[in-house]
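User: My instructor asked us to take a sequence, write out its structure as tokens, and then describe one feature of it. I'm not sure where to start. Here is the sequence I was given:
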Amino acid sequence: MVRCPHHGQQPLTGSNQFCSYSADTDKRSDRFGRMFDELPASFVPADVLIGIGDAYGKMRETGTATQSESKTVPVGHVFFGQFVDHDITLDVSSSLSSVVGEADSIPNSRTPQLDLDCIYGGGREASPYLYDTNGTGVKLLTGAGNRVELDDGTEQESALAAEDLQRNNNGVAMIGDFRNDENRVLSQLQLAMIRFHNQVAEEALVPIRDAQPGVADEDLELPHGLFEAIRQTTTWHYQWSVVFDFLHAMCGKPVVDDILANGRKWYCGGEPYIPVEFSVAAYRFGHSMVPISVQFQKNAPRFDLFGDVYGLGFKPLVDARGVVDWHEMFHTSQNRQVQKTLKLNTKMSPELLELPVVSDPDPAAKSLASRNLRRGNQFLLPAGERVAEHMGRDAAEIAKVMARVKTVSNGAIDGNGAPLWLYILAEAQEIGRARAGGQPQKNEGLGPVGARIVAEVIIGLLEMDEHSFLGSDRNWLPDPDRRSIGEILASTQSI
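Assistant: Let's start with the prediction itself. The structure tokens for your sequence are:
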């Protein structure tokens, strides 16, 4: 007699339990890969791509702030999206001059999990310079204590040290991922996440101190696994905000709900990996949404993201106006009038089409749009309309998106071979973000192809990670006051 396993005794056979179909894969978690292996590579001549991304071409945003801003997406989300990207991807080996035939030949220098390794580095043993070894030893270091050299050659603690990252004598940020110092919002976000870990640590230490009155922190008897528990609480709150705050804003709640309820359709397999369709195309949607001037503090003016007040990146904080008030960047319980991102469409801030931080005299090298388009060529990405067809999108919808691509390219791309990144931007403009009980919202978030790629990959990375809340404890809930990234960040600030 064959006995059937009782409810709860059937073994979970792997990540395909979260997919709507099974798929064998030889993908590696330390390499990039392809999501749509079966689709052919598209090719567009480089001069056409350079023309599309020209600083004074059709992609240049020329509207006023009122005309060009989103109606619903807080400006902080575009920078949080950059932070998430730095948590899961780092390609240091490909270039714009070499074809990437096999995506798995490109190593990913970040772990493909949302594990905050940009905060924790390699851990307390491998990255001890990130950790405060005084006291209990369970906290991370911030810039408190950073010193600056005065004109007379002496040193003193920087007046803004506590509002900055830990830095060495050369002003270089001592953090898990150097890229999180490339603009002031990111460096402040990195600092806030470090502070959040320390906040969680303080909460965990309260009952321990109460049980050992009069004992100095360095002499406390700490329970086994305390640091790991603090890190898990910190990381799971972050992961929750990625799914139920960030993805809702960028991909639409109906898309996220469908994936969580009915499984992933396109990002499946046995190992977590980063698809090039995601990293080189779909997840670069945020480049369209970056405003060049940002308001950091209440009742303060907006300053250029790369300017004298906020700095050009990779530098210490020297102006108090560069300290971010997160209530100004996200919707929080304070209900402030929050600055919004730019609309998600085929337009970009002029400064991103003439990057001030790129010294190369070649205009094409200075245009972030041209760089994105040419990178898609080198990575042999499939055409946007081929991906849409493969995903079962309606022919009329695809034609509508392709008409926008034709307009942006001045007819150079007419019904065939749309670069995937450009197609996804055009789809956001012509179709828009899914909305429960209503028509999609144009220019407010990703359309059906872009949203599905982005949401499936990020949710998949969590579901395939046995240490994440989705891979470990799907009944876990965050602190009620920390259910969004804005509330998490704002809870740590001193202004």
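For the description part of your assignment, you could build on this observation: The longest helix spans residues 184-211. Try explaining in your own words what that tells you about the chain.
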